[in-house]
Amino acid sequence: MRGDAGIVECSYVASEVTELPFFASKVRLGRGGAEEILPLGPLNDFERAGLEKAKKELSESIEKGVSFMNK
């Protein structure tokens, strides 16, 4: 809001970080808004398993949200 550049915050955005159309990711913010969506980075086996489990539930939620918006 002050015009600062290079701030990184988590945000739920349209992205290609996963195969899902939307995902909560670290985003580099600048004067024009979201300037870069950062990759997930390395995940260990436990984190990968959790991500796969979460993606199923998130996919269903995204479908419901997109359907609602298209009404």
Automatic annotation (TrEMBL):
Keywords, comma-separated and alphabetical: NAD, Oxidoreductase
Keyword set includes Oxidoreductase: yes
Pfam families in the cross-refs: Ldh_1_C
InterPro entries (UniProt xref): Lactate/malate_DH_C, Lactate_DH/Glyco_Ohase_4_C
Lineage top rank: taxon: Eukaryota
GO CC annotation: chloroplast
Single GO term (MF): L-malate dehydrogenase (NAD+) activity
Positions of the Lactate/malate dehydrogenase C-terminal domain: 5-68
PANTHER family: MALATE AND LACTATE DEHYDROGENASE (PTHR11540), MALATE DEHYDROGENASE (PTHR11540:SF68)
Protein name: Lactate/malate dehydrogenase C-terminal domain-containing protein
Source species: Aegilops tauschii subsp. strangulata
